[in-house]
Amino acid sequence: MPIPHAKRPEVDRALRAAFGTAEMDSIATVSGGLSGALTYRIRVGGIAYLLRVETQRDGFKDPDRWYRCMAIAAQACLAPRVRYADAADGVAIMEFIPEQSWSLDYAGTREDLIVEAAQGVRALHQAPAFPPLVDYMEGMDAVLTGFRATGLMAPEAISELLDGYGAVRAAYRTDPADLVSSHNDLNPRNILYDGRRLWFIDWESSFLADRHVDLATLANFITHDAGEEELLLRTYFGQAPDSRQRARHVVMRQVNHLFYGLIMLTTVAALRPGARAPGDLDGPSLAQIHQGIGAGTFQLDGWEGQVAYGKARLNEALTGMKTQAFDQAVRVLTA
After folding, report:
1. What are the pLDDT digits (tens) for 43-83?
2. What is the mean pLDDT of residues 196-202?
3. Interval 116-130 mean pLDDT
4. Distance (Å) of CA 1 to CA 6, 29, 38, 39, 55
5. What is the per-residue pLDDT for 101?
6. How far is CA 218 from CA 11, 46, 101, 118, 188, in A?
7. Of the candidates 257, 226, 241, 39, which has an alpha carbon nearest to the alpha carbon of residue 122?
8. Is 195 left (phi over 0), alpha (psi -120 to 50) or beta?
9. HSE-up (13 A, CA, CB side) for residue 96
10. What is the arithmetic mean of pLDDT over 226-250?
């Protein structure tokens, strides 16, 4: 049985509450993301479900908060239906979504995909308010502080990037009108396609946050050019974004690249304490890495590959901060 013995009482309690029995027809481990949670595909009464068992918790990894977020999203038909969730035990049972590749098997056009994703995020942002946690930009400050403490990269290698982030912090303040129920991590692993529609999953990063976080994440992961980005924004806002909305989006796209780069590098630094990443931010571009992953020529599961990916994200943020569009956005937000 793959469930750890120490967690079996909590799991049995969940099964009995959800189904009236602790017996399962079958159970199989499902590979998950970086959260550290244990996830299983189980069958009870011939029906498949997803069983998730938390193994870590702290001020951020708090099931009490994100279970509530997940329940709100499920009630809005954006997340799989929740059969059981107990924050004290750290066990949840959800409807199992048979996954297809939305990047390869999506039934519509790319434009249809972008429109559906934008409509889903808009519906999420219109849902009842998620619990608050932290101001998103203050959270970014903490992420950056944690990364710098690792010593993984020489200060001179990231000095220009830190200058750009300083310009962001001087200009960007979350507008209270933009505080919405936000997923905050809509990377492709957290968007499922079942052959008919998209679902959002893995809510541990969710809280009441700036609407532009989710919009920037979608733009960075699923749009390929300016036309697709414009379609995303027009669909979400119901019209062309105004100058301040567009400026916030431009700035938050660079913050989003910075976030994923810092999180990746902080994570890999913990695997080799005291190690120093070679060189500056030079290396494969983000586009080259994504192409390599798709072609099977780039391995993301090794230390060197993860460092290269993190540096590519930071370099993407730095490149964006050097553009005329970014300078104009900062001027708009400081006006």
Report:
1. 999 999 999 999 887 777 899 999 999 999 999 999 999 99
2. 96
3. 98
4. 12, 10, 13, 13, 17
5. 86
6. 34, 36, 16, 8, 9
7. 241
8. left
9. 18
10. 98
Task: Report the pLDDT averaged over residues 246-265.
Answer: 97
**pLDDT for the residue 1:** 54
In the numeric block, which tokens belong to residue 47? 């029906």
Distance CA 262, CA 147 (A): 6
Residue 142: other Cβ atoms inside 10 A = 11
Domains located in the chain, CATH noted: 5-95 (3.30.200.20), 110-334 (3.90.1200.10)
Cα 272 → chain centroid: 24
Tokens for 116, please give them.
């559906």
Per-residue b or e along 105-132, where b marks 16 or more CB atoms closer than 10 Å to that residue's CB: ebeeeeeebbbbbbebbbebbeeeebee
**What value does the mean pLDDT take over residues 100-113?**
90
